[in-house]
Each structure stands twice: as structure tokens, then as C-alpha cells.
């Protein structure tokens, strides 16, 4: 029994079809197979994990499943963003085919964002789609990538360029798994938590300003509150716009810049959350230059990322290199870049066109001097 | 103007979302860009074709589009089923990324089933989904693969193992493109046409018995009638069951056997339609042994395939090899193979379990003696 468990629902209805699903958040959920069982159409699952997370949590999960008569096969991948590619995806396909996994065999992602994105895309495309469950074990995955159905892989020419929208049947976020998360990764996850406050909820942002020290120190109550509120905000947005035709793109605050940083540095050198932190500072600087927010807002934003121990200065590259990488962004339309900007803390908007001169000034201001 | 054009609609509604689309069938439609324009969200498209079809029809299509102010990029792939794989898919991704194709850039498949399946899967997964149009140029693609949204690629361990359900915005079946189709490919397409009569429409089957000579001789009216009726039957079935939870699987008559033949021979040695023809004879033989149809029915089925110049004898392999390949079928559930059987000519059903002995006898009866 776990009295502290909380559940957020992602509501996705279209006509007769109901693809809504619960996100369960709390301590010690990994062994609570009763959360998982109702979502498994077959007494066989394939668990995809990596060489870091596997040794920590795989045996616990498999034993719990076995106790309920669920057989599992194990697919362990190398760890890291630089493995989120077609070759690693093919390792999953090969294992599924070799083990004769079927249309009703559920794929379970046990790990961080890379495992979730890879496994989700494999689930979306293996036999044209099999059931999928997310068990995120990093803060970033618990508050962001496991919710909302974005799956995919990187291409040498750009991040997340190949993928699908494919929703899980259930998400199980066990905050106990964060105990083994390195500090740097915890902080990277906090970048996305701050983002939710910035784009949608000034009160949550203020709560984060007051509780950042507790979060960084892994206070369990503070973490569970941050995870729950982040999931609620993401669930609301995804329910309103599953395929990113409109409001969902606001979740990309800082990501056009951030993806360019990740790509320029080489995937995995900066963590995604670190690149997003610096990218949000750039988006905030751009918003200030467009007179949407003022210097004081910008300073508050800088301060909260600093408090979280996240980078607030972008790595130095030629502006043209940034431009060229930002033009790979999926929001580009008719060759024009579009950015998510802040109207104020707690409210984001999509830009139409931004003058190149202002963009260049923003890049120069935000880059490290050397 | 084209007075003889006919339009079949695939009705796909789910709630507010309407993914229904038209299939336009007739002569000389390739240059009629008014059929295409309403479905293009951007004045830029990427046309995917192959080295056989490109030289015949690409210039005509591009010139017609240009006349309407639509810019197009060209992606020409090698021809053949053995290229329906991850490497060729990656050629499409690379070209789309290199040319900065965006979320609103439409992908147009100009070619047969392989081009349609590859391009559709690229459209389903590039930037998590871009608009897609099918211009099928083989009979097989016009009556089958271009309709219904099945897309995908082969894996060394099995055919069509990786893919997605992804619907086109419009299908344009120009029967003039069949003029350049080799005889062998025309006959392969007729296998799927016969299948529609067998599973769903005894009157259409009888019409085919009477008109097979005209079809094989490429009588334009006979061809257009066969294409239209085939598309109508497929559209009805897809509308009822888009993701193959039930009735749609009846379209797989002969395909469990057929896929095993294709795989055992090596992809591309037998054409898909040829393997399906022999596979349908095997399914019919199995149905007879299960006392669902009688010897007279079986003889009629053999005769119509023979009239179409299609193989009615399966290649010789060990039964165990057939079993092992058939177990890769996507219909396998809990390790049990399931088959589409005939109750009578014009009515198909899904089998539950078939005794191994009857299956073995069926294989032995249907295989070539040497």
C-alpha cells in the first residue's frame, strides 16, 4: 500500500477512441505491479533499459512481474544521448524479432529520456504499433519526456528529426529511482520543471524560487510536488493539442536554441536540460529585446537557473553556425524560424518573425566570451 | 476535363478529427494538378520515385505542378522489393533534411507498392509526421497498397515488420500509367483484385471469371472497373477497422503463406502478387481440408489464377521452414498461428487454431514436386 501516491490523467479522447492514460507518481511504485497489470494485454512483456539503469532496477521489476505470472524479456542498450539513433533502434527491433514478440507484447521503457524516446518509437513502429508503458527513472523523463507521446531518434543532421506521436498506456514515476540519479542529471531535469512555471504558472514559478534549495537537496516532498505539478501542466497542454498544431509548441521554450547547442557541442556533451537552461535564458533575452519582458524578469529567470546550478551562458560558436543549426528546428515554416517567447513570467507565446539583427544581438549577448 | 474519372472515398472519422480522403481513378489524371492542389498546405513538395518510374512520369508531374507555382524536389531511389529497407529509408530522410523540408512539406509517392510503403513510412516519421500523397503507378499499388494507410519497410528477419498506420491526403490512380507496366507486374496486381472477390463479393468474383481475358489484355474499361471495385471493397474494410483489430485482417487472405514464400525465396525473386496467388491457393486448400469449401470451389479458384497467368503451386521447401517463417506473421498470438480461411467464394473468416497435421498436409499438397 502506498498512501502518498498521486495520479495525473492525460485526457485524450477522439470520438469512440479513448487513449487517455494515468501517470502514477510516488515512492516505491516500481514493485507495485497492480499499477501495471491492467494495461498488459498479454502475459509477456519486453523491458528496454540501459547499462546504467538495468543493474539498479531491472531485477526488482522483473521479479515483481514474475510474481504476477508475467514473463519478461530484457533488452539492455548502451547508455547516453549519442546512442539515440537508428543503430540502437535496430538493436531493439532485432531483439523483438528474435524473441518473437507479438502485436500484444507490451514494450516497457525503464530508464531516462533516451530509453523512453527509443522504446516509444520502437513500440510505434514494430509490427506497426504495439502497447507501450513508460517507467521513467530520471527527473527529466518523469516531468517531461515520458508524458505526451513524443518518441523518436536523432539523425546525424538533427536532433529528434525522426519519430512519431505514440502514447503510452500508463506512466509510472517512482520518485525512489531518483535516489541513484547523479546530481548533474537531477539539475538537468529541474530545467524543464522551471520551464513549466515560466510558460504557464507564475505561482508554481514562485514556489520554485522558494523551494529550489530543497529540490536540489532532493527533499522527497518537494520533488513529488514538482513532479506532480509539472505533469499536470504538461497533461493539460497535451490534452489540448496532442500533435503540436498550436499551444503544445509553447513547451519548446528554449528548445530551438537548446537543440542548436546540443548539436553544435555534439550530442551528450551538454545534457539536454543544460542546453535547455541556456536556451531559455536566450529566449528570455530575446523576449526582453523585443520588449515583452523587462530586465527585472530576466534577472529573476537567470537567478533561478543559477540557484539550480544550471548553465546560464551559451557556448561560444559563430552566430552563423547557430543560425544554420536553428534552421533545422521542426517549427521552421516556409524557411522562417519561429521562437517561443515570454510575455511575462507564467505566460509564453509563439513568435511570428524576429528580425535577424535582434537575433544576432541576442546570440552575442548570451554566449560565453571565451 | 475528364468525364470518366471516378472517386471512391475512404471514410475515417474519429470525433472532431476527419482523416477521410478521396481515391481518384481514371485516365490522364497525373497532369490534373487540380486534384492535388487542395491537399498541399505549402507550395513545396518532395516527390519520391524510383529509377524505373521516374524517367517515365516524373517530368510530367513536376511540370504540371510548376505550372501551378508548386516547387518540387526529387528523390529517386533504386527500384525493387529488396530496397524496401532501412538503408533506402535513410536516403529519403537525408534528402529531406539536406533540402530543409518542413512539417508542411508534402511527400508524394510516385511509383509502385515499394515506393508507396517507403514514402508513407518516411512521411509518418519525418519530423513526427508530414503530409502524404499517393500516386500509385502499378496495378498492385492502385488496388491495394496505396489505400488504407499501411506503410513500412522489411527487416532482414521479416517482411513489413517495421512500419506505421499513416493515411494519405489523397490517392490519384491514373490508369494510363499501367500502359508501361510489364505484363508480369500487371498479373501480380490481378492477384489482389481476385482476392477482393474471394473475401467479400461473389458477384465481383464472377465478373472477374468472365472478364479475366480482357483484364490481362489491358482493356481500359475492364481495368478501371476492376480498380474501382477493388478500391471500394478495401475502403469499406479500412473504414470499419483502420488498425486491423478485426475485419481488416481478412485482407490478409493468402498472405501468411505468401510472406513465407517471399522470405524463403529472397525478397524480389517472386513478386508479392505472385506469392499471394500461390498463398491464396494454399489458404483455399486449407479451407477445403477443414471442410469449409468443397473441391469444386477450390477448382474455380485455381482456374481463375491460372487464367491470370499466376502461379498456383508453391515453391518447394521443407515444411519446417514454412512453419518457421509463418510464425513471423503479425497475426500470430500467444505463439499460435492464425489463418484467413474461406467459408465460401465471397466470404472469408479468421481461423482460431488449425491442427498442425492438416497444415502440414496442406503444405505438402500445394508444393511443387521438384
What's the quick description here?
The structure is a homodimer of 370-residue chains. The first copy, chain A, is 44% helix and 18% strand. With 370 residues, chain A is α/β, with parallel strands linked by helices.
Number of domains of chain A: 2
Q: Cα-atom Rg of chain A, whole angstroms?
A: 20 Å
Terminal Cα span of chain A: 54 Å
CATH architecture name of the largest domain in chain A: Up-down Bundle
SSE-based structural type of chain A = alpha/beta
Describe the model.
2 copies of one chain form a homodimer. Chain A is an alpha/beta fold. Chain A has 2 domains: 6-180, 3-Layer(aba) Sandwich (Rossmann fold), CATH 3.40.50.1970; 183-366, Up-down Bundle (Dehydroquinate synthase-like, alpha domain). Chain A has 12 helices and 13 strands. The first copy, chain A, has helices at 54-67, 86-98, 113-125, 139-145, 183-200, 202-216, 220-240, 255-265, 272-289, 295-307, 319-326, 356-366, and strands at 6-10, 13-14, 17-18, 21-26, 44-50, 71-77, 106-111, 132-136, 150-155, 158-165, 171-174, 340-344, 347-350. In chain A, the strands form 5 sheets. In chain A, strands 6-5-7-8 form a 4-stranded parallel beta sheet, with helices on both faces. In chain A, strands 1-4-11 form a 3-stranded mixed beta sheet, with helices on one face. The first copy, chain A, has a two-stranded antiparallel sheet with strand order 2-3. In chain A, strand 12 and strand 13 (347-350) form a beta hairpin. In chain A, helix 2 (86-98) packs across helix 3, helix 4 (139-145) runs parallel beside helix 5 (183-200) and helix 8 (255-265) crosses helix 9. Chain A starts with 5 loop residues before the first strand and ends with a helix. The model of chain A has no long low-confidence stretch (mean pLDDT 94). The interface between A and B is large, with 43 and 43 residues. Chains A, B: It is an enzyme of class 4 (lyase). Chains A, B: Residues 189-332 form the 3-dehydroquinate synthase C-terminal domain.
Amino acid at each position: 500500500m502506498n498512501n502518498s501516491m498521486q495520479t495525473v490523467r492525460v485526457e485524450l479522447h477522439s470520438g469512440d477512441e479513448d487513449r487517455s492514460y494515468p501517470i502514477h507518481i510516488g515512492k516505491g511504485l516500481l514493485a507495485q505491479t497492480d499499477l501495471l497489470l491492467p494495461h498488459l494485454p498479454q502475459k509477456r512483456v519486453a523491458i528496454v533499459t540501459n547499462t546504467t539503469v538495468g543493474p539498479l532496477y531491472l531485477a526488482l521489476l522483473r521479479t515483481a512481474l514474475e510474481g504476477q505470472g508475467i514473463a519478461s524479456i530484457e533488452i539492455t542498450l548502451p547508455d547516453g544521448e549519442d546512442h539515440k539513433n537508428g543503430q540502437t533502434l535496430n538493436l531493439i527491433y532485432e531483439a523483438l524479432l528474435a524473441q518473437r514478440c507479438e502485436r500484444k507484447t507490451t514494450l516497457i521503457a525503464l530508464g531516462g529520456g533516451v530509453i523512453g524516446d527509443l522504446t516509444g518509437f520502437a513500440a510505434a513502429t514494430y509490427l506497426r504499433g504495439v502497447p507501450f508503458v513508460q517507467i521513467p527513472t530520471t527527473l527529466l523523463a518523469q516531468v517531461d519526456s515520458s508524458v505526451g507521446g513524443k518518441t523518436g531518434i536523432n539523425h546525424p543532421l538533427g536532433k529528434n528529426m525522426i519519430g512519431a506521436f505514440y502514447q503510452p498506456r500508463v506512466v509510472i514515476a517512482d520518485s525512489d529511482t531518483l535516489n541513484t540519479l547523479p546530481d548533474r542529471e537531477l539539475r538537468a531535469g529541474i530545467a524543464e520543471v522551471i520551464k513549466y512555471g515560466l510558460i504557464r504558472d507564475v505561482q508554481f514559478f514562485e514556489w520554485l524560487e522558494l523551494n529550489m534549495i530543497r529540490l536540489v537537496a532532493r527533499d522527497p516532498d518537494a520533488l513529488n510536488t514538482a513532479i506532480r505539478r509539472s505533469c499536470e501542466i504538461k497533461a493539460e497542454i497535451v490534452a489540448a493539442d496532442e500533435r503540436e498544431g498550436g499551444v503544445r509548441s509553447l513547451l519548446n521554450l528554449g528548445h530551438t536554441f537548446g537543440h542548436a547547442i546540443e548539436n553544435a557541442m555534439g550530442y551528450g556533451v551538454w545534457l539536454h536540460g543544460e542546453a535547455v537552461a541556456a536556451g531559455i535564458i536566450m529566449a528570455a533575452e530575446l523576449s526582453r529585446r523585443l520588449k515583452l519582458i523587462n530586465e527585472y524578469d530576466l534577472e529573476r529567470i537567470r537567478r533561478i537557473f543559477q540557484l539550480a546550478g544550471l548553465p546560464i551562458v551559451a557556448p561560444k560558436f559563430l552566430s552563423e553556425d547557430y543560425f544554420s543549426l536553428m534552421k533545422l528546428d521542426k517549427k521552421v515554416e516556409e524557411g522562417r524560424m519561429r521562437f517561443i517567447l515570454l510575455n511575462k513570467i507564467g505566460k509564453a507565446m509563439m513568435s511570428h518573425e524576429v528580425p535577424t539583427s535582434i537575433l544576432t544581438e541576442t546570440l552575442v549577448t548570451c554566449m560565453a566570451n571565451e
